[in-house]
Design goal:
The chain has 14 helices and 18 strands. By secondary structure, the protein is of the alpha/beta class.
Length: 426
């Protein structure tokens, strides 16, 4: 069976987010951690999502990694390609969304694509080219304080035009709401004007379905995970997709449970408040991690040994914005972030290998990437959704016990996410 789509995601939780949306659409999907170094038994798999950690790399390195992923996906016979970034369009002033899009278009000998970060189900919408998160402009949503990719402008046309050598245009909501034919005419007009990337207004799921119909034949789409809903519907309508009834099937979960959080987003901080009221909790002090990280890790592991075997444990290094800013000012944003991620990853690795933990919920994209790398996971089966964009997964490798992971973007999930997640794991 030919792969319907090959996907390149710029971080680990973003990859899982997209894979989850594809599975919800009935597309049997696996996620790989980085570009596979050997052949995979794809069988009846219809989509592969390659998780990179390229969001905050220098643009040149992000481009190189993305082109390597594209080369592997083309060798598997993919029919279409999907560059996935966050629904909050996380990027620096220099990229990486624009440079990677340019490189992928050139490699595919294509002159046009769309940019569609919207995910209305998670309250990420685009109106007149402006991105809204939780009903406010992006630069008022908390993303302006992001430690690595602060977003201080909600106008996607301005943000993207500064990063790309292509002209950027807008597929506005008026054309989109006029139906597929009117929207198609608008896209064709933009291409005649020399536009290479069209930012797409998207207000609701119907807009995603219209965009899916418009873009199902494009060699490359660039988007958040929401567009997968529209594409899956379009593939099914055209007869290219036979919906899989067991796309989200996982083995029964086993082992102890732990939540590891390095995210400082508003959503995660709210989730932690509910989790701390329910579970035994240990806070890792960021200052202590910077000064004596090995000792803090050892103390955390000892604390876990002393807890009830049936308890769900919570270990977090998340801090409110003012405290995070103080640590970053003193130690540097990259160094402090890397130290926290490394500590949580080392804790995860030891909990799995020496203390019988087999069910991990990880909050934060960078933290999730560090944990997955420490556990030497090469790929993931995608299971049932907990909240939009966040599924349970299991490691592809055949371990004695299945290793179940929920890898959550910091901005995603309802306030009770860390409580209800366990009820949805098989």
């Amino acid at each position: 069976m030919a792969l319907l789509v090959g996907c390149i995601a710029d971080d680990f939780t973003g990859a899982t987010d997209l894979a989850s949306m594809l599975v919800r659409g009935g597309v049997k999907t696996i996620q790989t951690i980085g570009v596979p170094t050997q052949a995979l038994p794809l069988g009846d798999v219809q989509a592969v999502v390659i998780a990179l950690k390229s969001r905050t790399l220098p643009a040149r390195e992000a481009v190189q990694q993305s082109l390597h992923a594209l080369q592997w996906l083309r060798a598997q016979g993919c029919e279409q390609f999907y560059f996935k970034y966050c629904s909050t369009f996380d990027s620096t002033a220099q990229g990486n969304i624009g440079p990677v899009t340019d490189a992928l278009l050139e490699a595919l000998d294509s002159r046009f694509t769309i940019a569609c970060p919207a995910f209305p189900e998670n309250r990420r919408c685009v109106f007149n080219g402006y991105l809204f998160a939780n009903d406010v402009p992006l630069n008022e949503s908390g993303m302006q304080d992001h430690p690595l990719t602060p977003m201080k402008d909600a106008n996607l046309l301005r943000v993207l035009q500064a990063q790309t050598r292509h002209d950027v245009g807008l597929l506005d909501y008026r054309a989109l709401h006029g139906g597929v034919e009117q929207a198609q005419a608008r896209l064709q007009a933009l291409q005649r004007q020399g536009v290479g990337i069209a930012v797409c207004d998207t207000l609701d799921d119907q807009d995603l379905l219209t965009l899916g119909s418009l873009c199902s034949a494009l060699p490359l789409v660039t988007a958040g995970s929401g567009l997968a809903k529209g594409l899956a519907a379009a593939w099914q309508a055209s007869g290219r997709l036979n919906v899989s009834t067991d796309a989200a099937a996982l083995r029964p979960a086993q082992g102890r449970r732990v939540i590891l959080s390095g995210s400082c987003s508003r959503a995660t901080l709210s989730q932690l408040e509910q989790a701390k009221a329910r579970y035994p909790a240990l806070r890792l002090d960021a200052e202590a991690l910077m000064q004596r990280g090995d000792v803090v890790v050892a103390e955390a592991l000892d604390w876990c040994r002393r807890q009830d075997l049936d308890a769900t444990l919570l270990i977090y290094a998340s801090s409110p914005a003012h405290e995070l800013q103080r640590i970053q000012t003193h130690y540097g944003a990259e160094q402090s972030g890397a130290r926290i991620e490394s500590a949580l990853a080392r804790i995860a690795q030891q909990l799995v290998t020496t203390q019988g933990f087999g069910q991990l919920l990880v909050a934060g994209g960078e933290t999730s990437g560090a944990v997955v790398e420490a556990l030497q996971i090469e790929g993931l089966h995608i299971g049932p959704s907990i909240d939009p964009g966040v599924p349970w997964t299991q490691a592809l490798d055949q371990r004695q016990l299945p290793l179940s992971l929920a890898l959550k973007s910091g901005n995603f999930g309802s306030d009770d996410f860390m409580l209800k997640a366990w009820e949805l794991l098989p």
